[in-house]
């Protein structure tokens, strides 16, 4: 035979016309009978199961010269001979042995000796090329195959390279040479799985590069990494894929695959139809039988690869890192399973089992713990029934695992801070995090969030009266925010499926089947929700709404189809006596309105108690909303009805919006009134649309025909005023905040403030109400509403003491604009945004153009003055300037009677001004100036008035009256009063005011009672503050500016007209009092309790929070009380059961005569954490308390005598297995509480500090457990390590999420990478640790296990070298499975290391 040198001839197998020799099937059997028994994997290994996911088909195919454009030529690299003579002699030796039919073993030994003498590295890449080229096809005889097999046995050729070369030769020619195909598969079964010996071979890298060249792997898959381990994955994947396509081709099934062709060569390019015996019928029949047997064997090998422990894990790496290629493979595998006739003849393989392999959802990289501690930990991770029962037996019901949601919802209800971000997005991320960490089904997760929201309602079902209403906000949280969060999660799945469908249209039928998975979980959840009747009890104020929902379901079931508007007129009297509903009916209606459910929910068993009864009284009156949609005009009666009844659909609220835009002036006012009515407060199904419409109406575009010199906004004065007044209530602003619309609302208010604040108050407008309206009034309403959208009311003390942020870092109008710009600029960039946009009305569009503070020069100037007022004393008032004249005019207006006396009130810099002679008329003329000018002068006016009072020229009563007159003239000046008086209190330069009842109001009547009640509240919560003074004979005093502000608030009546003023001043007053020395806050509570006795409980509760502002020890005690009550470790019977009820209780209020119910510690902490000055110390304290809780749990879960027994047993951990499981469930709850408190207290910044700084220093310094814990046989230390791991991962998921959906997730890679680098360095011995070794090991294995099991996307963000170092350290602990799981999730960069680990450990 002439030697072939060009690659094309090598590929096609040209042999210069020499006849090809067929090997009968018996030759195959005889050949392998000469060898020792074929080695097989154990049956248990062969049964290893493989998880396969479905991905789209591959798309980069080559070789345009083949019959199918998608067939890739497998070019064989020519032999690179170190010496031509050497390889000629090798070939001659082989031919000679072949002719003599020599013993293959002698041939192999002789050849090995020759190659060693020639210093050729073995196994030899060149020899592999030579032998395969020799066999295919000029010497396709049994003896040459025996030579090849013996060369593999004695390891003079690399098996993987030989198989790669054979795959390019044999598989395409299998129909011509079926025996060669059979022999190839026998070699494949025998030698493919011996990866370990090949991996550690001397020429492994060279061999893999050669395989890459032969199979063109790098070109085929296009991966950025080309290292031996990666090539190994690609090789295994390619071999099994080629067998699959060959099997499909054998049964003519390739046409059924999406690509209708093969990716790998399955047929020869030059089919030899003139070969020997081509038309020999006997030989053809024999070949046909062999071909069918080969197809069956190929399928068996495919299954073996998918089930084998080593290859299945290697294929798992291909699945994770080459999803598009894997998708094509799976699609072809499914075609084989569905249509293969050969497959149905196999005994041990069924189509169903093969399809199961292609869709198996089990974890491939399962991590069976090496120790009892690992087993116990993963038992807890599984969230199984054992853990649930254990928790229930220790006072922590299954609902307690959703405790973070309860805490978040309750914290979001605190109206003292308006959030700039959406509670919907935060709740969505929180629920996804808990579902992932708890490992629950989505129906359990949905049930958890609904139950938490229902508990929030029940805590406010019968609230005690106070100035801050909460029930409507709580109902918004239940029926709007929670529903939208659930909608996000359901639609997120649909967005991902939509993305996959767009990428691969052939998956449409399958995706439709999977589309409703989370929706079905939601249906299951809502059906189970009906079992929680106690939580579903309806607050009295919404009973009529619930009755309407029940009536709607009843009418639908009975076949009476009427419009939604009909149910508006249904009341209790129209309902059947036995047909009252509950809050589940409102939840279901909310889900139907969001297209999460359909009306089939009305037919759920038990949803309505009677479907045969109809309404006893059917009103003939057409409801208002129905009349409106039919075209009825907005008459006064109809407007009143629409104001008091919420819209039931988006179409109805859109109709009102259209009227507000294009109606008459009177209709526009009516439409604005309707929008701010019940549809805004209780239109839960369309609440976000109503808010967006209001914001849109506050930003009308410039008319195309407008030509006036003034702003076009001036003509909207009356219309704006209705909207501004309508959205100014406390609960309404909180609703905007929960919906995340504060930045948009602020951006709409700023132009109104700028324009109306720059206008002179003449002429005035007379709206339809008949009241005169000035630009000052419109400005004040807009300005005071704008101020409430950031932390304006917090005192400057917060920004001037300690290591706290500077003034410039506080949230302000500029920050709100940044949020607004970022949100609008990024919206629409993701599939999820596109789905969200479908919910928004077609009328709602916002420009994405950025808005900056420079667009509002007057507002910016005022804000700078506000900042300056906080930082320094007043200066710069020059006599004779316009500002000085306005100051004089304001003082004259405020103190008219005083100015007629001999002691006029004048500004300090003006000397003896003639303003005292000015009359009221003259001052009013001077005040016909823009509101911005008055605000600029107001600080000087307040300074002059306070100075006059301090020097006795002005009595306290006169000061309060004058301040009230100024606020009545321009309510916007209240903001300046708050900032000025707060700043002056912090300076401490004013003499104290004696609250004696003569000059200033006296709190003496009830001050001691208030102080005693505060003491009782703290004591009942587990907080003891010995330094808290109660009673005493010293007269009550307050800083003069504070006394002035209190006196001003007392002058207001508790009516609707004063609500907006008190809403602005009240929170500021509380914040200021909290920063003043004790007993300023009790004095404030006493004075206001005298004015509003019905608010007494609320005021006392607010006053009790002040203690924590001044005393860090009290904060620590409160934190301890939170933990002991939640875990049921408290001796108090109130908290002995533990769980959510013990932590959050039922709010506050007097339910017993003569006393106050103990306030739940969680409620108290959520109200005070914002006033804790040094928030950084919180993490260390929480971590310390967490460790104490672990010790207490361990001692209560495992009695001391049992611990002693554990020390004496070889398998001590197993001795207390059940108790240990219960203990781990409780420490898990403790970690969940701790993580939530850290996240709520300081947000992502505090979590970042914890992960990056606090925990590393904590482990290095050796904090943690005391000696008693270390003596417990390592059990307490182990529990502590797992607890801290769970605590740390939970903190991260709360702050950054489990995916990349939130903006905060962008910070995660840097922080997480630094922490894992610390772990890796410590494992590598580069960092010395001071903590207990058992705790450290438990922490590392726990942290990594949670990441691998619950936050897999985190691993992709970590540097590959860090993962490799961490994996190496885990292997030293015999945690090979965990090390493999970590590398397996590390992406393409870690795939090679993961593959090498799989082979090395032979998993």
Structure, explained:
Helices cover 60% and strands 0% of the residues. The chain has 1403 residues and is mainly α. Strands 1-2 form a two-stranded antiparallel sheet. The N terminus is likely disordered. Residues 908-921 have a biased composition (Low complexity). Residues 259-287, 902-921 are annotated as: Disordered.
Which shape, going by the Cα principal axes? elongated
What is the helix content? 55-70%
How big is the Rg? 40 Å
Number of helices: 67
The profile of the biggest β sheet is: 2 strands, antiparallel
Mean of residue pLDDT values: 80
Number of strands: 2
- Strand order within the widest sheet? 1-2
N-C termini distance: 46 Å
In percent terms, what proportion of residues is strand? under 5%
- Regions with pLDDT < 50 over 5+ consecutive residues? 1-81, 269-282, 366-397, 508-514, 611-621, 796-809, 910-920, 1149-1155, 1206-1218, 1267-1273
Q: SS-based structural class?
A: mainly alpha
Keywords: Membrane, Transmembrane, Transmembrane helix
Region (Disordered): 259-287, 902-921
Biased composition (Low complexity): 908-921
Protein name: Mediator of RNA polymerase II transcription subunit 33A
